[in-house]
Amino acid sequence: MSLIAQRREKIRRRLAKEGVDALLVTDFTNVSYLSGFTGDDSYLLVTKKRDYVISDERYTTQLEEECPELELTIRGPGTKMLPFVSSLLSKQKVTLLGVEAGSMTIDFYADLAGAVKGCQLEPVRGWVEQLRMIKDREEIARTRVACDQARRAFEVVRAALTRDMTELQVAADLEYQARRFGAIGMSFPPIVAVGARAALPHASPTTQQLGAADFTLIDWGVNEGLYVSDLTRILVTGKISPKLRKVYGVVLDAQLAAIEAIRPGVRCEAVDSVARKIIGKAGYGKRFGHGLGHGTGLNIHEAPRLSQGQSTVLKPGMIVTVEPGIYLPGWGGVRIEDDILVTRTGHEVLTSVPKQLEECLVG
Ligand code: ZN
Ligand code: ZN
Which fold has domain 137-360? Predict the structure, then answer.
């Protein structure tokens, strides 16, 4: 059985356990996860016996190639999704249907409930997302590719960096190089923030030139086709001021200590605390205003979250970012981010871009 078929088997076991006849998967990312389909606008119906992709004629050929083991139900141009889904449910004699509460609109839920006679809807939460937290070997291999493409793109852009380049040009070059190395795009629009602009954790690139300050924060990641990477580095284009050295040192210490704390059995919030304590002790506690990290996978932000209040326990196969930051309005910000795989014995850092401060000097 393929790894993707095994994922559907796990859903089938859940159906049996919860006494639900079928699950209608309407979150497109969850559909990709359970089917291998890389397209859009399609649902998946997992029943106790078979699985059906519900799509339209734009995707017929792609579905035949990407999901050969799945039954295709393709609606024609004149058929709307709702009557098509309800007729499939009637044919399969589904009387209790699990629906994804996190993705279905209230409209569709109400219409579907009214359209299928004798079928009750049961909102379910997190069934697929919980499976997605633990990556199988194929997902880990693809994430490695995404990390590698991100590194290679960064190296090429970095080697050609000049002080008269703008934030927008650096962002564009990163995307161009990532695509040249085989990525289908970025995981998210890159953040390139010169000097004081780096105090905004989610700054959008502007026409500001790199030479306008001593350092630039770059947060980028690529999508290799399905799986993503997510990194942040500081590049020093001017001189290393004592303040930069100090702030950078605190963030790096916090990041390395938090990574060291990652192993199976540790609670997510405990890893956050390791970094938060170090930053707090250095007097910057109030300047670290976000969680330590997040899971990555088919989406750039997914479970688990490394932050306060998160009692999820780390398990082998989880992939999380570790990205502490210190943001000082008017001066700038430092964040360092890597992607970490939880292994049976501890962890493995999947990203390998140098991060000692001296290694961040450009030119
Ligand atoms: Zn990032
Ligand atoms: Zn991130």
Answer: Creatine Amidinohydrolase (3.90.230)
